[in-house]
């Protein structure tokens, strides 16, 4: 029987690894790829931050950049506003103005922003979440140009590359599942902007829904699409989360997070041509391990008889050799409503002794007893016992082809890398520094946001980690064999927050200023060609710290040996005295 409690491989770190780990801690992330012929060295330096000083209220969620005015639109859900930042000097982002959206309607929240051709589009949800939301169009100065009604809960929006169409993901979450509760249909609104946004009317909006799949519910479930809302049709149950669009603007791929699927949309005909089940990740395979316990007091990334549902949040696309590839951040999500609460824990369920001969060990808190799983899958023979276990999310990023077939998955990279670089803060939560291992029984580091960008002649993918913070960078120029570049995190784990009389965290402005970024939500890449300072930039919107941070991406001298890496890392330690920011990287992975 497997010994799930053997943690020796995480406590006896190789001495050379430890030296590298310590010396590369600096305000720069030194990035190397192993093969000298393809070596690539980059630094990621946090050069400027705009801070709202608002804690854990989504005061910075999503951003969009206008290269003509050097202005950055930032979604501030805390104040129901769009903050317009002047980043003509990325070192000193400055608040140009703020658009108070409450003056424009009775909105329940602001969810997303996108830019094209001197126009910013903003998605706002109705105060009654099941009612239709709106898209508001603004110029660079924040003046309202037009508005149009879309579907319920518009959660994300993006323009086609030529700017002639705007696609809106209407998530359409249900009110609940009690009798009389409303469950609107998920959809994508396709807005024709070719005649100018000032001239848009409701006739320029086409809705692509899923009604044609209602009669295929059995087939979709058989394929692995999760359709499980009590009494819901397919059209009601599918919840569009995020959208990626092909370069030619003809096809869109829509993540259906709770459903563990992707919808493929023909934009011209406003028709979904397929709903692709993403399948499941086997955490019992080498390279796919997880740490599934927050009660063992240690890092223990291991293989377990558990499947992970990919359930991607954000999605991005890029083209290689004329083929489109999709990059997803596999966050995971669950449903918790009246009459439907799918979250349970391994220890709370009966496990089939034939499928799980070591069930007693698995159900211990120190193993995976506290791991959150769904109660909607795994009972394959409809008795009182589970034959399979399915956890939320895959703790990774994936690359898929244009048909939705898996091309690459990062396996357990994210937990392995953060375990080595931040062993004392592994799987921390995003609102409390003293939270080691806190998220291991949930969804681990929770990759949520993704952005794609070209630096030199290489295509890079940036993946934000919502819980521990920071972002991973991979070279995805070859989608079949991506290479880890760096992990960057400017969070200062030594900062302790005050608490209020109720025992809740209540950091001071000074503490928020010192802690760095918490809870990255959206990532925006700005190419060197579009950048205000001629350097490629990456913007992180952080919803817990309420900060918007700009990273400058530069090439650095490329060490040819381990000694060179150590010397450069030591130099970074000196720089650390002048920068109250920390980034982490280890090319040895």
Describe the fold and architecture:
The chain has 589 residues and is mainly beta. It has a single domain, classed as Methylamine Dehydrogenase, Chain H. It has eight helices and 35 strands. The strands form ten sheets. The chain has a four-stranded antiparallel β-sheet with strand order 1-35-34-33, with no helix packed on it.
Supply the key terms.
35% strand; Mesenchyme-surface_protein; mainly beta; Methylamine Dehydrogenase, Chain H; Choice_anch_I; four-stranded antiparallel β-sheet; 589 residues; globular
Gross CATH architecture: 7 Propeller
Q: Using the CA coordinates, give the radius of gyration.
A: 23 Å
Structural class call reads mainly beta
- Apparent shape: globular
pLDDT averaged over residues:
91
Low-confidence stretches: 7-38, 561-589
- Strand order of the biggest β-sheet: 1-35-34-33
Strand content: 25-35%
CATH class: Mainly Beta
Number of strands: 35
Number of helices: 8
């Amino acid at each position: 029987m497997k010994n799930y409690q053997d943690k020796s491989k995480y406590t006896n770190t190789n001495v050379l690894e430890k030296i590298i780990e310590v010396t590369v801690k600096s305000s720069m992330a030194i990035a190397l790829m192993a093969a000298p012929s393809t070596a690539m060295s980059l630094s990621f330096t946090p050069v400027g931050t705009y801070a709202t000083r608002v804690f854990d209220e989504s005061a910075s969620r999503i951003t969009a950049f206008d290269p003509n005015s050097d202005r950055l639109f930032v979604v501030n859900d805390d104040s129901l506003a769009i903050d317009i930042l002047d980043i003509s000097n990325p070192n000193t982002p400055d608040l140009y103005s703020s658009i108070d959206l409450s003056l424009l309607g009775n909105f329940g929240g602001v969810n997303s922003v996108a830019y094209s051709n001197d126009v910013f589009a903003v998605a706002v949800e109705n105060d009654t979440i099941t009612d239709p939301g709106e898209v508001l169009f603004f110029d660079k100065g924040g003046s309202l140009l037009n508005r149009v009604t879309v579907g319920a809960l518009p959660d994300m929006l993006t323009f086609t590359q030529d700017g002639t169409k705007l696609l809106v993901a209407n998530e359409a979450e249900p009110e609940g599942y009690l009798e009389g509760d409303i469950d609107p249909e998920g959809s994508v609104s396709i807005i024709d902007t070719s005649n100018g946004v000032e001239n848009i009317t409701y006739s320029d909006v086409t809705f692509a829904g899923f009604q044609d799949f209602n009669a295929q519910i059995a087939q979709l479930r058989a394929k692995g699409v999760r359709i499980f809302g009590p009494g819901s049709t397919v059209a009601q149950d599918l919840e569009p989360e995020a959208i990626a669009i092909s370069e030619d603007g003809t096809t869109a791929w829509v993540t259906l997070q709770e459903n563990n699927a992707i919808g493929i949309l023909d934009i011209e005909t406003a028709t979904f041509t397929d709903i692709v089940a993403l399948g499941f990740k086997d955490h019992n395979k080498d390279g796919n391990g997880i740490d599934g316990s927050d009660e063992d007091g240690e890092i223990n990334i291991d293989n377990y008889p558990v499947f992970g549902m990919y359930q991607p949040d954000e999605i991005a696309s890029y083209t290689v050799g004329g083929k489109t590839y999709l990059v997803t951040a596999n966050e995971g999500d669950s449903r918790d409503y009246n009459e439907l609460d799918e979250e349970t824990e391994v220890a709370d369920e009966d496990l089939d002794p034939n499928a799980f001969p070591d069930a007693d060990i698995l159900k211990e808190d120190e193993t995976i007893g506290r791991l959150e799983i769904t109660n909607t899958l795994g009972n394959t023979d409809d008795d009182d016992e589970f034959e399979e276990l399915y956890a939320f999310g895959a703790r990774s990023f994936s690359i898929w082809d244009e048909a939705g077939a898996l091309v690459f998955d990062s396996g357990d990279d994210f937990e392995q890398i953060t375990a080595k670089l931040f062993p004392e803060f592994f799987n921390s939560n995003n609102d409390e520094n003293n939270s080691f291992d806190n998220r291991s029984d949930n969804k681990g580091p929770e990759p949520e946001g993704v952005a794609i960008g070209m630096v030199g002649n290489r295509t890079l993918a940036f993946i934000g980690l919502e819980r521990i913070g920071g972002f991973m960078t991979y070279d995805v120029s070859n989608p079949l064999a991506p290479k880890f570049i760096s992990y960057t995190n400017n969070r200062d784990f030594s900062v302790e927050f005050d608490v209020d009389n109720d025992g809740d965290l209540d950091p001071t402005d000074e503490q928020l200023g010192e802690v760095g970024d918490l809870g990255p939500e959206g990532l925006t890449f700005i190419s060197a060609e579009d950048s205000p300072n001629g350097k490629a930039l990456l913007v992180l919107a952080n919803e817990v710290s309420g900060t918007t941070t700009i990273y400058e991406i530069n090439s650095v001298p490329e060490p040819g040996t381990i000694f060179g890496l150590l010397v450069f890392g030591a130099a970074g330690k000196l720089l650390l005295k002048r920068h109250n920011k920390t980034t982490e990287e280890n090319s040895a992975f």
